[in-house]
């Protein structure tokens, strides 16, 4: 049984049919990527998994439990953390307060160790722990969003375009951190437009177009697929 | 000497505004809605404490606690029944609902307690007389002193609550981004409920203090102070706790001086004119923050 099973979900924004019967799965220990153009439905899919949006039909199970009807704030404590598109850190709170919010569902006793773990991955956040988060650079904000998500000790970490708007050096850094989280035992579901980078680290990937999955395969297979090369890898 | 006594009465009135404004600003900050029924919760607090003190003969402190309990419950019920179903509705729908709740509370009070005003027994009576040499004397009502002290305690308490406690920080998180707060595992509905509970308990305290200084209690008692406290919250920067405190105090002082030195009739006009000028110069209010977003 897969860790996350998404079966035939349909999601609407009002009358717009955004997700048209998507099914996929993520096995424990994998890195799985959803790639696709803007508007393909990648972020909508993640938001449906984390409970911010609801699917009209179909179901999602996580570790064998259905997520249907469970509010977003409870899904976090089931072991899913979601780093949303655009990071959405709490701009007016300090770096440390953001990190504390990430640990909202966890007992206070483990806080010190979790913080230390996050600061080991992101030493720059430690230096800036008392700084107001809105004054961080884009890369630092992404790191804060990822560190904050890791505070909930997720089994599954969902990242929505973590490399968006970052310089190539920072993109490398972010992908290294994703690999490090994965090595520590976190399963990763990644949404990316940077197909090159993401396919290279993925076990498997799904290609979304207009709310449907049009192609699937291992990261390597998709990197060599002619269609993918044309559409996402720049020839 | 007169100046001092006007200043003191302004501070005391301003403290009441500040306590009400703190409730307004917290609810606005977190639920992003203007709870125009807030002033009427003050009135309910006034009536409940009046009945406890004057009819049941309970001691003042106990009456305050009873009023706070009733108003807390009322606030949570109002939020749950009237506002929660509109969580994803347009802000105009919520605003109109709030005005509706306000009229509902006023008319319910009219039905239950009648149109005749009640004379409120002050929580504490008496004045402190300070002799300032020769035959100059300054008298400060004890209730004015109590009001200012209570207001400062509430301000400090709320500041500590929102900066130090887990629930307080969760409130600030909800205030910035409810979706992201949910992704942290924060129960947004519960957080909003708690905010209404705190705001309404403060309204009860404000009701007791207001009626102790101005002892005419009627179903519309809360309206004008409610509107002025809303003004104070905007004046100080809506959403900001120190802003509501500062805005409330300044508004009270301006009103008191305007009454004393310019005209009693024009006092309200002057208060609102000052608001307009401040908002022209600082659209976010005195302490309202404009935080540029970095992308």
Describe the structure concisely for a colleague.
Chain A has 235 residues and is of the alpha/beta class. Chain A has helices spanning 42-49, 72-77, 95-102, 111-121, 123-127, 138-150, 168-183, 195-201, 219-224, 226-232, and strands spanning 4-13, 16-26, 31-36, 57-62, 65-66, 80-83, 156-160, 187-192, 204-209, 212-218.
Q: How many distinct domains of chain A?
A: 1
What count of helical segments of chain B does DSSP give?
A: 11
Number of strands of chain A: 10
Average pLDDT rating of chain B = 92
Going by CATH, the homologous superfamily of chain A would be P-loop containing nucleotide triphosphate hydrolases
Write the layout of secondary structure elements.
The complex is a heterodimer of chains A (235) and B (295).
Chain A: E1 4-13, E2 16-26, E3 31-36, H1 42-49, E4 57-62, E5 65-66, H2 72-77, E6 80-83, H3 95-102, H4 111-121, H5 123-127, H6 138-150, E7 156-160, H7 168-183, E8 187-192, H8 195-201, E9 204-209, E10 212-218, H9 219-224, H10 226-232
Parallel strand pairs in A: 3-8, 3-9, 6-7, 7-8
Antiparallel strand pairs in A: 1-2, 1-4, 4-5, 9-10
Chain B: H1 2-31, H2 38-55, H3 60-83, H4 91-113, E1 118-119, E2 127-131, E3 137-141, H5 142-164, H6 166-176, H7 178-183, H8 188-213, E4 216-217, H9 223-236, H10 241-262, H11 267-281
Antiparallel strand pairs in B: 1-4, 2-3
Helix pairs in contact in B: 1-5, 1-8, 1-9, 1-10, 2-3, 2-4, 2-8, 2-9, 3-8, 5-6, 5-8, 6-8, 9-10, 9-11, 10-11
